[in-house]
Amino acid sequence: MQGSKLYVGNLGYSVTSEQLQELFGNYGEVQSVNIIEGKGFGFVEFAEASHAESAMEALNGSEFEGRTLKIDEARPRKPREDRGGGYGGGRRY
C-alpha cells in the first residue's frame, strides 16, 4: 500500500466523524476523517501508510453500526473537466 488515505464504504447515514475517528484510531494516528454526507461513504487519513494498511486489513468486511464495512486505499481525485458554464458554453447563433 502506498498511501495513507482510506476509502470507507457502506457506512450507515447516522455514523459520525467522531465514531470513525475512534474506530480507526485503534490502528494509529488519524489525521483526518471526512464523511460524504448522504452518500454512505467517507475517507480516513492516517499519519503513516503502515497504520492505514493495518486498519484496512483489520476492518475490511467487519461489522460497524449494523453494516459491513468496505475499506480500500483511496484513489486520487480525477480532475474535473471545465465544461464552460450556464448555457453550455458552446456554439453561438
Q: Compute the gyration radius: what is it?
A: 17 Å
Largest beta-sheet details: 4 strands, antiparallel
Helix content: 10-25%
CATH topology-level name of the domain at 5-68: Alpha-Beta Plaits
The whole-number mean of residue pLDDT values reads: 90
Number of strands: 6
User: How does the overall form come out from the CA principal axes?
Assistant: globular
Helix and strand string, N-terminal first? EHEEHEEE
Q: Report how far apart the termini are.
A: 53 Å
Structural class: alpha+beta
Task: Note the total helix count.
Answer: 2
Q: Class of the domain at 5-68, according to the CATH hierarchy?
A: Alpha Beta
Strand order of the largest sheet: 2-3-1-6
CATH superfamily of the domain at 5-68: RRM (RNA recognition motif) domain
Question: Can you describe what's shown?
Answer:
- This protein has 93 residues and is α+β, with helices and mostly antiparallel strands.
- The protein has a domain at 5-68: RRM (RNA recognition motif) domain (Alpha-Beta Plaits), CATH 3.30.70.330.
- The chain is built from 2 helices and 6 strands, in the order βαββαβββ.
- The strands form 2 sheets. A 4-stranded antiparallel sheet has the order 2-3-1-6, with helices on one face. A two-stranded antiparallel ribbon has the order 4-5.
- Strand 4 and strand 5 form a beta hairpin.
- 17% of the residues are buried.
